[in-house]
């Protein structure tokens, strides 16, 4: 069609989004062409040129717009039949709850009637077994002090080492463990003086322990 043939308010068959549809020309567009309305979708469209208008709509074209298409009726029927009613939605959770809880109730009652015990539930706390506390290792010098306290008399270093091994208090794989203990006791005597746990014995190379009865009880009480 030509531009001078287009009239405001008139309906035309026009090419809209790749298809031909009836449109009504509402006004001239400030961007050029015309502002129109798609009579099928009800949406506003813009007709840029008169060449997009094929012809004026006939009475038959406009009459067909009032009749609902089979596709729309089918969609409406489908939605109506498939949409759940409020009553259906309300009943669904209740049925699901009954199905979920009923077997458990029957199972519990049947077990109670037959006297069968329920399966024990395991907990993580039961699975964890407490590990025994590791006994604190006694140093060679402390073991020597314990040997002297237990003996109640002065002893030579070699005998001190032997008794410590026999009692299971301390043992060394060194070639000369008695030399190690001898040097350690001398260092404590020289460093602590009167506060030392050891004193030199009356004989050469012997030592005795300085320990009160209360300290002895406390020492061996802790070991027990």
Key features?
224 residues; alpha+beta; SH3 type barrels; Arc Repressor Mutant, subunit A; 5-stranded antiparallel beta sheet; 3-stranded antiparallel beta sheet; 45% helix; rod-shaped
Describe the overall structure.
By secondary structure, the protein is of the alpha+beta class. Among the domains are: 3-64, SH3 type barrels, CATH 2.30.30; 140-223, Arc Repressor Mutant, subunit A, CATH 1.10.10. The protein has helices at 59-64, 70-82, 86-114, 124-127, 140-151, 157-166, 177-192, 213-223, and strands spanning 11-16, 19-28, 34-38, 44-47, 53-56, 155-156, 198-200, 206-209. The strands form two sheets. The protein has a five-stranded antiparallel β-sheet, with no helix packed on it. Strands 6-8-7 form a three-stranded antiparallel β-sheet. Helix 5 (140-151) packs across helix 6 (157-166) and helix 6 (157-166) crosses helix 7 (177-192). The longest helix is centred in the middle third of the chain and has 29 residues, at 86-114. The chain is rod-shaped, with a radius of gyration of 53 Å. The N and C termini lie far apart (116 Å).
Mean pLDDT: 77
Using the coordinates above, name the CATH class of one domain.
Mainly Alpha
Radius of gyration: 53 Å
Q: Return the structural class.
A: alpha+beta
Helix content: 40-55%
Q: How many helical stretches?
A: 8
Q: What is the third-level CATH name, the topology of one domain?
A: Arc Repressor Mutant, subunit A
Give the H and E element order: EEEEEHHHHHEHHEEH
Distance between the termini: 116 Å
The largest sheet, given as strand count, sense and whether it forms a barrel, is: 5 strands, antiparallel
The portion of residues forming beta strands comes to 15-25%
Total strands: the figure is: 8
